[in-house]
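forwarding from the other thread:

> can someone predict this with zinc ion?

sure thing
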Amino acid sequence: MPTRHAVLAAALVACLAPPSPALAAPAPTIIDRPIRFDQERIDLTKRYIRRHYGLKVKDIKIVPRAVVVHWTASGTTRAGWVTFNRVRMRAARKHLLRGGLVNVSAHFLVARDGRIYRLMPETWMARHCIGLNYDAIGIENVGGGKKWPLTPAQLRANIALVRYLVAKHKGIRYLLGHMEWKRFEKAPFFRELDPTYRNAKPDPGRRFMRGLRRALSDLKLLGRYTTPRKGGR
Ligand SMILES: [Zn+2]
């Protein structure tokens, strides 16, 4: 039995120890609004993984090492949700359809008022960023561009959400905007067998990423992949 003094001393140490930065922030409120992710979508995702990454997988689980931030380029949460709820890619999206039948999605959708919706399990693969899907959690923000500039409430929600994700998934080292994917093309975890399957993206804008990185600087997340130096010199 520890003495009363020892218990008090331990409690005092626990109180005084600085919490880790990722855990210090209050957890954001996350509302589950699952999109349709049925067996067909799972099978189509497996097919995508095999075709683009050369992996034959039993399930579509990922171990996230990055968070990719996006905008939907549509004005309402409903429109974003409906887009991602489709199992198969729309025929009109020809470039993406060439890459596979499974529809695009993301793990989170952040409304213009900052409400955070979780659309699918955080560790299932979503199709949201060419080359990084198998390693990244995707956050979509409703709006974007000149028409619907992303809001301060969305920035605050993204800050809280990334902190929550980094605290929960220990392998996350990178944070990037979709428009920055090229910074990762040399990374060993940039997986894409077809060298012609690429696209240029504007989302979520430099300003938003700057704000996000400034607020999260204590987490020391990397915004690009750099080759580790050999021999430590
Ligand atoms: Zn995007």
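The first strand starts at residue 30 and ends at 32. thats all i got for now
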